[in-house]
User: What shape does this take?
Amino acid sequence: MTEARSVVIVGSGPAGLTAAIYTARAQLAPLVIEGEPSSTSDQPGGQLMLTTEVENFPGFVDGVMGPELMQNFRSQAARFGTEYVTAKVSRVDLSSRPFRLWVGDPEASEPTYTAEALIVATGAKSLMLNLPNEARLLGYGVSTCATCDGFFFRGHEIAVVGGGDSALEEALFLTRFADKVTLIHRRSELRASKVMQQRAFDNPKIEFLWNAEVIDVYGESKVSGIRVRDTQSSQESDLSVTGLFVAIGHQPNTGLFAGQLDLDESGYLVTQQGTTHTGVPGVFACGDVQDHRYRQAITAAGSGCQAAIDAERWLESEAAGH
Ligand code: NAP
Assistant: This one.
């Protein structure tokens, strides 16, 4: 049977849960469809579930672990009456109001939920290298999450791929466990912020392999090595590592909305300048799914707040017949 809701929020990262805190406190009884556990996290909650220490979220003088921060968001939203469904939305129909959402069988004749207002906070996911054996060894030495897996690499030699802030953050965190971390970057210059670069250069456990790309990862039941190609000489060599952490960026989770909401050339949702309104009245977008510039927990949370306020005002004006 279809359940009619006022506000449905899809996604449970900092954006979705901040939208939940604000809409719950505005008495809109939000439903958060929070997603499902994945191969990289045993709980929904977005990318912070895959993050280690967060040092730049205001209010935490000594930093906080990503999963702990998300648990706090979740409990705070629950305190004001937010309801959660641990599932993925399989289909949406935004062609008329109320909007229709399916969980489970996308071909079911009746939607699972209807929503007067919809807040999209589906975030972005980790990009992978698409190596021949990468998917097979994901969770067996290939990882996108140092927090989840770093512990298993005590005393090991491991590699991290990427040259951005994520790669350096992962590499630095992993030096707590590993004896040696080789950071493999396809160019000779890092993209990461200068402060992160300096920290990595100063860390004696981190070695840099420049102008190099990983072309395969080996191992029967777990990773035992990787094959690397020099991008300038094309020479190939093997590196004996037991872990390969892939930290090369993200892709927005917008597949559900293709053809119904405007997407930019990289697949991010388009919102109206300075607001969270999408092109469909009553549908709002916040967080990384619509932000390829800042992509920070705090900016995601900030835009989640904006989406809640935009949705609240929009519902009020609709109710008033404007
Ligand atoms: P990013 O900045 O887009 O960096 C991705 C890195 O991966 C780049 O160095 C890129 O190389 C490399 N790369 C991409 N595709 C590759 C491939 N197929 N093979 C090999 N290498 C590949 O992504 P990010 O590091 O995830 O960071 C995303 C955003 O979040 C950034 O704005 C970042 O500043 C921010 N962030 C901030 C913090 C923090 O402040 N604590 C932490 C994490 C992330 P090229 O450089 O050659 O393009």
